[in-house]
């Protein structure tokens, strides 16, 4: 609680909401976006595996321009979906989070992979320089998780220019997420952000401290959010399943990279 001059108190949640209202436009500003410049990761070092179930039919729908996501649906023709007015903020967060790459991966065709690359390239062109919803920390985290999970599809066998654009964007997004972590809403969004920072530290080696910072943030959020009975503090089954999938995927990636899994992470998944 914060105390005003008249002796009244303001809940920390309200202070946090006020900060987020003022910070969101800042994250989308040209000056802030310029500040995200830094070393380009030379490659994606590890390949996380998504434990979320993609559906080939939904991948086919995306190829046809139809996006059915949490928060609504949208059909586009030639336009990238984020350039067209969608049904609302929840849909926009899902769209910019790129969790739907699971469906294109499940489709498995060469056309789906080409489309995946084209949409990522279009996002870098259209929204990679700003956009309030696109740069919300938990949305950035979901996008980082999705892009790093399918990094092999994004960059393997592509030309150097496209590959560099993707890697530069990944570096910028990771720097933004690390800076903006405490502007994330408490609860599941902040745990997702901690997972995103940790995964970026594992897969991108443009920062020596990101992985250790991710471990620290992850331990803090797991302690706050995972209850003694193993449930998530939200008591939302869907949110519980999504977080468990992300945590288990992160644990698997650390084991594969021969990096010791923090005890807090192992305990939370178990």
Could you characterize what this model shows?
The chain has 270 residues and is mainly alpha-helical. The chain has 13 helices and four strands. Helix 3 packs across helix 5, helix 4 runs parallel beside helix 7 (137-149) and helix 5 (101-107) runs antiparallel to helix 6. The two termini are 34 Å apart.
Index terms:
270 residues; mainly alpha; two-stranded antiparallel sheet; 4% strand; globular; disordered N terminus
Overall average pLDDT: 88
Number of strands: 4
Task: Summarize the amount of helix as a percent range.
Answer: 55-70%
Shape: globular
Layout of SSEs?
Layout: E1 2-3, E2 9-10, H1 12-27, H2 30-35, H3 56-63, E3 66-69, E4 72-75, H4 89-97, H5 101-107, H6 110-126, H7 137-149, H8 151-155, H9 160-180, H10 188-203, H11 210-225, H12 237-256, H13 263-269
Antiparallel strand pairs: 1-2, 3-4
Helix pairs in contact: 3-5, 4-7, 5-6, 7-9, 7-10, 9-10, 10-11, 10-12, 12-13
